[in-house]
Structures are given as C-alpha cells and as structure tokens.
Design a protein that fits this description.
8 strands; 260 residues; alpha/beta; globular; two-stranded antiparallel sheet; 8% strand; four-stranded mixed sheet
Length: 260
C-alpha cells in the first residue's frame, strides 16, 4: 500500500476515467454544475426518473427506435449499473492503494455532473482522500461501509422500476470486478492490490451469492444479467462478457460493458 497524499487524484485518474475523481471541501457550498448524488435517491425529486428516461432514449437511439421500444426496467438496470460503477471504481482504487476513504461516505458526500455517456464527473470530500498519520483503513471495512451506505441507497432507489434486487446487486458485483479489471489493465503492477480490494467487496454478505469465481483462471461470472441485451430489436443484443448468459449464447459476449 502506497503512502496517501493529495496526489491520490492524479494517481487514480491514470487508472482510467471511472477511477478519476475531483475533490471538494466537506460541507462547502454547492456550486453549478455540481449536484449532490443524494438527489438521485430522494423520492419525488424526479432526478432518477429523468436519468432512466435519458438512458432509455439513448439505448433506443442505438437501434434507431423510439424510447418506448425499450422496456423501462431494462433502462433502469443499465442506468443503475452506470451509477454504481462510477461510485465504486474510485473508492476501490483508493482502498487498494491507500486504505482510503478514511471515514464512511454517504451519497450526500458525493457530488456529480449528471452527463450521460461514459464516466460522469465525480467529486469526493478532500478530507476523506488525503490521510495523515494512521487514519487509513482495511479494504474490508471500506467495502462494508460502501455497500451498507451509498451503494445500498442506490439499490433501494431503483425499487420503483421493478428491477429485482438480485439483478441490482449483481450489477454491483459486476461493477466491482470491472473496476479491478480496469485498474489491472491500466497498471499491471497493481493487479494484486486491486484484486485483493475487489475480493474484500465481493466477500461482503450483499455480494457473496451474486457471482462465481473460477479458482483456476480467475474468471468472474455474475449470476444474473443486467438486461442490456434486451435493448435491441427482438432482444437479440450481445450479452456482457461476465454475464450468466454468455456461455449459453455461443460466447457472444461484450468484451467490456458500455456503462452509462
């Protein structure tokens, strides 16, 4: 584990766009274009429904169809996967490299720019990602706090869209594995701490039954499907590379998931 410092943001950004983040002073005034991520989980705010609708329109446009051609629950699952992947990736990187964040995070701590397409802007409280003295933490404690805190809040927020908890927690497991895979691809020398941090997440009670991991080749397979293949005409789209359906469809999987 390397020594944490203010340079953490630069280091993590080098591991890919989903690991990159900016920082703000905890409790500071919220300035445009930043928004608090807690608004996504606020019932009645309309923010989550707006995002799901935007993802639905984008998925439909990929096959030149109207938004109504894509089932709302499909768009909701894809939107959820994009959100949790963006939230988990930098935290898993920090856990692997620095034993940070130094205290539990909430959705209210996180600030975002809500653009679609790839990794949206994300900001974490500066005080939690710049440690001094001995205020670093084991990856297991960080994982437990993340899954019980902001990740569970995002899972619960999607209940109105009729996406099963099994799929939503499967999305979380997939995001964890995807983050470790991305870090390893960008910096092979960090493979061991990245995989160790990912395993600390995957061994938490919420995720233990969401995946299988081949002990011989390290292949990760989730036990559910994010449903993105259903966004194409006749639900004939390719499945993701880690999908439970991949082997049953002649290996027609995506090498990397197109997160939103």
């Amino acid at each position: 584990m390397t020594e944490p410092s203010a340079a953490s943001t630069t280091h993590l950004a080098a591991l890919g766009p989903f690991c990159a983040f900016e920082t703000h002073t905890a409790g500071s005034e919220l300035m445009p274009p930043w928004r608090t991520l807690s608004e996504v989980a606020q019932e009645g705010s309309g923010v989550l429904r707006e995002r799901v609708a935007s993802v639905r329109a984008s998925l439909a446009a990929n096959s030149a169809r109207p938004p109504e051609a894509v089932a709302p629950r499909v768009a909701a699952s894809v939107a959820h996967l994009g959100l949790v992947a963006r939230v988990i990736s930098p935290v898993l990187g920090l856990a692997a490299l620095h034993g940070l964040p130094s205290r539990p995070l909430t959705l209210g701590d996180l600030r975002w720019g809500s653009a679609l397409g790839g990794a949206f802007r994300l900001s974490l409280p500066r005080e939690t990602v710049t440690a001094t003295g001995g205020d670093t933490r084991p990856a297991g404690a960080i994982a437990a706090d993340m899954l019980d805190g902001p990740v569970r809040a995002l899972v619960d927020a999607f209940a109105p869209f009729s996406v099963s908890p099994r799929i939503l927690w499967g999305n979380v497991a997939s995001a964890v594995n995807g983050a470790a895979t991305g870090i390893t691809a960008a910096a092979p020398g960090l493979a061991r701490p990245a995989r160790a941090a990912a395993l600390a997440f995957l061994q938490q009670p919420q995720l233990r039954d969401t995946y299988t991991l081949d002990t011989h080749n390290g292949r990760f397979t989730r036990r559910s499907c994010c449903l993105i293949y259903r966004a194409t005409p006749d639900a004939a789209g390719a499945v993701c590379g880690d999908c439970v359906l991949a082997h049953g469809r002649g290996g027609r999987g995506r090498g990397r998931r197109g997160r939103r």
